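pinging the channel bc i need a second pair of eyes. not urgent but kinda urgent?? the chain im working w is below, pasted from the shared doc
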Amino acid sequence: MSTPNRPRTKLVPMPSTNMLPERDIDKYPVLECRNLGIDFGGLSAVKEFNIAIGRTEIAGLIGPNGAGKTTVFNLLTRVYKPTRGSVLLNGQDTANMTTAQVNQAGIARTFQNIRLFKDLTVMDNILIGMHNSMRYNLVSSILRLPKYWLEEKTSRERALELLSIFDMESTANHIAGSLPYGAQRRLEIVRALATNPSLLLLDEPAAGMNPSETAELMENIVKIRDTFGIAILLIEHDMNLVMGICEGIAVLNFGQVIAKGTPDEINSNPAVIEAYLGKKKEA
């Protein structure tokens, strides 16, 4: 796995086995998983998953196909109910939350397979993502009272600001399904940002992108973190992207974390190399 030039970040141990970027160590982690696990029909799909994400960290979750990475995302967003363990979001246990409540509490995500409202406009897709922040009531909406129009105007201006991150303002009135594949990927990220998350989960954001699009995506992920001051956890198979922008990386294999550390530490970890390449036979 190649190691491109990138800013070096010092990871500092927490009281637990987790680590955070040094700049975040004086703040409570945006996310902390403690012994998280889930069983399906007696089979442990994820077990003893422990991780912490700093409040402004770009972190990676990598591993071979079928390692359980998307299952972890489904646990974090309460699509799946954990069999054991806990998830703390901004210090609050999410055990009694629904998926919608987890989103309202601060987690937004994208998916491996793009999930847009493809028959609606780009603008409408983003406005749907803003439903948590809309402040007008049903009466204002039905009667089109001044408060409704003010909220609509504010929301549309905000949507254009978010689109500007990817220079997509000109697509606001385009039908989402008519956009090129890469633009649909970017729109899904914008819609997730519209929910005002403190943690953004990206599930293979570079899937299907060419090298030029991937390089631009890397720049934009860092830009999103810096602009909004949020944390980002991504699943990705493109190791140039992972090693280029992630500060802390956890490696999952058969549902269990086999390594955690900086890109340099992960890049040279024998257990990680074996998980990806297989164990060499002795001569």
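so DSSP finds ten helices and twelve strands in the chain. and The domain at 1-106+197-283 is CATH 3.40.50.300 (Rossmann fold). — does that match what u expected or am i reading it wrong
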